[in-house]
Amino acid sequence: MDSQPGITIAHNPARSRVVAIHGGEEIGFMSYREDAGAIVIDHTIVDPRFQGQGVASQLVREGLTALAEASPKRIVAACSYVRIWLGRHPEFAHLTEW
Length: 98
Hints:
- The chain is of the alpha/beta class and 98 residues long.
- It has one domain (7-97): Aminopeptidase (3-Layer(aba) Sandwich).
- The protein contains two helices and six strands.
- The protein has helices at residues 55-70, 80-88, and strands at residues 7-12, 17-22, 25-35, 38-46, 74-77, 96-97.
- It has a six-stranded mixed β-sheet with strand order 1-2-3-4-5-6.
- This is N-acetyltransferase.
- Residues 1-98, 10-97 form the N-acetyltransferase domain.
- It holds the Pfam family Acetyltransf_CG.
């Protein structure tokens, strides 16, 4: 699924999140924590008003890319949504362990 109109994805390292913004409001996020040698993605949350519209998919797609570009650490998919998403998008599997 392509990017959703009006939704911006931004990496916020200070909060350990990749956020989805619509109309100036944060409508979703993919959170992570840094462990020794790894970035562990632990949650993907989207406001119920925006669920089913591809926001979570956009968060994961752009978030994985941003995390891989920002750090040489391996990325571990602990979030069940991210693991399912990776199963559907094998072209991103090289960025993660799960």
